Task: structure prediction
Amino acid sequence: MCLAIPSRITEIDGLMAVIDVFGARRKVSLMLMPEEAGAGDYVLVHAGFAIQKVDYNAAQESLKVISTIIEELSQGGAGADDLSEEQKPLQ
Result:
């Protein structure tokens, strides 16, 4: 199973883009995108490839849920005891 997190494109150079997720940036390929994407657009990324454009509102809703989960886990909330040391958020 794969979890794709909505990522905002900050820069585009040909078929490569720089994306930002919660302040973390990385380069991804746009080669598999079925439609054109531009800076400011949100995309889903899998294995280093942007694979789908995501509506701004849907991206914000998903990011809010993910932020809540991260916050809950980092405070030792529900499910935190079930995580291995490698899965726990960095302090």
Summary: Helices lie at 56-74. Strands lie at 6-13, 16-21, 24-29, 42-46, 49-54. The longest strand covers residues 6-13.
